[in-house]
Amino acid sequence: MKAIVDLFSTDYGLFSISGLLFIVFMAFWFYRFFVRKMNEAEQANRGR
After folding, report:
1. DSSP label of 47
2. Of 6, 35, 7, whose CA–CA distance to 20 is shortest?
3. How confident is the model at residue 42 (pLDDT cuts 50, 70, 90)?
4. Would you give the distance in Å from CA 26 to the centre of its chain?
């Protein structure tokens, strides 16, 4: 219980949460970006 209180009430806990959220957001963004680019390349190759 002390760990959860420290996580949400201290500066290092809040920085940890924000860092983890940033990493998860960037993973999602990269996944969507690369899937979109692969689909665009596939459509371009079909058009040849």
Report:
1. T
2. 7
3. very high
4. 3
